[in-house]
Every structure is written in C-alpha cells, then in structure tokens.
Design goal:
mainly alpha, single chain, receptor, Rhopdopsin 7-helix transmembrane proteins, GPCR_Rhodpsn_7TM, 2 strands, G-protein coupled receptor, G protein-coupled receptor activity, two-stranded antiparallel sheet
Length: 318
C-alpha cells in the first residue's frame, strides 16, 4: 500500500540551483545577467523590426534570419523568469507543472532554432549553386511552408516529453542542477525506471539535432565543392563570405549543445559548477551572440541601430 502511494506521489515544486559555490556573489552577478537578457531581447527585436520595415530585406535569406531571431527571443524568454528569480530575488522554487511548461518551451525553441539553421544552410546552397534561379526556387510560399514544417516538427517531437515526466513518481530529492528545467535533469530525480524517457529523448535528439547537424555538414560539403569550381579566387572568396554569418550561428548553437550533451553523458565526475555553466552557456550564448554577428554583417541592421541611438545625426546626414 505504501509503495502504491509513493508511486503516485510527486513534488509540489522543484528547487532550482543557480551557480554552485557563487551564492554570495549573486547580488553582483544579477546586473550582468540582466544586461545579457536586455542585449538578447533588444538585439533580436531590432533584427525582426528591421527585416519587417526594410523592403530590400524581404528575401528568403532574411526571412530565415527573422525566424532565427524569433527562436532566440523565445529561448531567452523561457529561461529569464527562473534565472532572474534566482539571482535577483533568491527565489529558487518552481512549481512542478510550471517546470514541465518551461521544459517544454525550452526544448521546443531549441528544436526550432536547429531547424532554422538547416533552412539557412539550404538557402546558402541555392544562392551559391543556382544564383540566377534563387528567387524562383525559394519563393515566399516555399519559405512559409518551410517555417511551418520546422514549427510543426518541434511542437510534435517535444510534445510527449512533459507527459513522460508526469507519469514518473518523485518522492526523494527535488533539487535540480540548473537554473531552469531540462528534461535530462528532471528525469534523473525520478524514483522509477526512466528507460522510456531516455530512449525517447535519444530518438528526439537524433531526429532533430542529429539529422539537422548532418544536413548542415552535407550542405557545406556541397557548398565547398561548388565554390572550388569557381574559376577566380575573388569569386570564391565572395561566395564563401556570404556564409560567414551562418557558420558563426551554427558554431554558436552547436558547440555549447555538444558540450552539454557530452557532460550529461560522460561528465558525472565533474563539479556541479561545470554542469551549471555549460547549461547556462547553451541557452544564453545563442540569443546574445547571433544578433551581434548579424548586425556586424548586415548594413541595414547597423543603420537601424544608429537610428535608435543617434537619430539626430542620421537625420542631419540624410
């Protein structure tokens, strides 16, 4: 009877962990953390508004960039309440159901970002391989359908995850390892077999991040082969230069992701601080660095920033 009661018991809340060993410095860390979120939200907001308001940017390349900025904004908004709650107000508890909701949206936006990076890689393939047919291959309809497929895939793949967690009993520790809820972290606290969760998590990762990373690699192998066939060195350099921003975005997303995955699988002996910092980097670095990279490479976005901060100067020059 007792075992039956335990099997149905779940914690009312989980306790989130900030950065282990640095608890006394949370007050000072709150300011740079707040600045990080401001940069992420403001930077991605500028990208979205610029692409919306500038007709020259109404092409597939920038539509996909807009999707990437929306995914980064969603990712930042998912983690912001719990992160700022810990570092600003020392509020470490999160309700069980709220934890599941946060987990779902974090993994969904992460899957969306991965899918958008694949779409951007295909965009670069078409632009370099068939530049004269770029507009006829990547029409607005194709871009819309691609976005719908990316969104639908992310929603459907991640949808079972909260329900797989919900069925598990939790009656021992309720202390999570991070400042937000991740599937691997939550399921490790369960007091029952997590084989189904682990198997489904592995399948979901292979179907999204695994297949996406392979697609991106194959795309760039094709791009490199096409570029090497260009006769002039200047032409090759110009073609490769159009891929620099996307390559940076891919590295910004996948390097922390691979680091988190490796640590979760093989880094059990590492300190909790390492686990926490890698998870924070995985979710905070892309929303912050992607706008910076694309602002440096896109003159229309730079002009928009100048208009925001120095409107008088722009008006007088105009």
């Amino acid at each position: 009877m007792t075992d039956n009661n335990h099997s149905r018991f779940q914690h009312l809340y989980f306790v989130l962990t900030g950065i282990p060993g640095l608890e006394l410095k949370y007050y000072w860390m709150a300011f740079p953390l707040g600045a990080i979120y401001v940069i992420a939200l403001f930077g991605n907001g500028v990208i979205i508004s610029t692409i919306k308001s500038e007709p020259p940017l109404h092409i597939p390349m920038y539509y996909f960039l807009c999707m990437l900025a929306l995914a980064d904004t969603g990712l930042a908004l998912c983690t912001m309440p719990s992160m700022l709650g810990i570092f600003w107000f020392n509020c470490k508890s999160i309700a069980f159901d709220a934890c599941l909701v946060q987990m779902y949206f974090i993994h969904t936006f992460s899957a969306i970002e991965s899918g958008v990076l694949v779409a951007m890689a295909f965009d670069r393939v078409v632009a370099i391989w068939k530049p004269l047919r770029y507009g006829t291959i990547l029409t607005n309809g194709v871009v819309c359908r691609t976005g719908a497929v990316i969104l639908t895939r992310a929603i459907c793949v991640v949808f079972p995850v909260p329900f797989l967690i919900k069925r598990l009993p939790f009656y021992r520790s309720n202390i999570l390892s991070h400042s937000f809820c991740l599937h691997q972290d939550v399921m490790s606290l369960a007091c029952a077999s997590i084989r189904v969760n682990s198997l489904y998590g592995l399948i979901a990762v292979i179907f999204t991040k695994g297949s996406d990373s392979l697609s991106i690699l194959l795309s760039y192998a094709f791009i490199f082969r096409t570029v090497m066939a260009i006769a002039s060195g200047e032409g090759r350099l110009k073609a490769l230069n159009t891929c620099v921003s996307h390559v940076c975005a891919v590295l910004i997303f996948y390097v922390p992701l691979i680091g988190v995955s490796v640590i979760h699988r093989f880094g059990k002996h590492l300190s909790p601080l390492t686990h926490a910092l890698m998870a924070d980097a995985y979710l905070l670095i892309p929303p912050v660095l992607n706008p910076i990279v694309y602002t440096m490479k896109t003159k229309e976005i730079r002009r928009k920033l100048i208009q925001i901060f120095v409107p008088a100067k722009v008006t007088s020059e105009g």
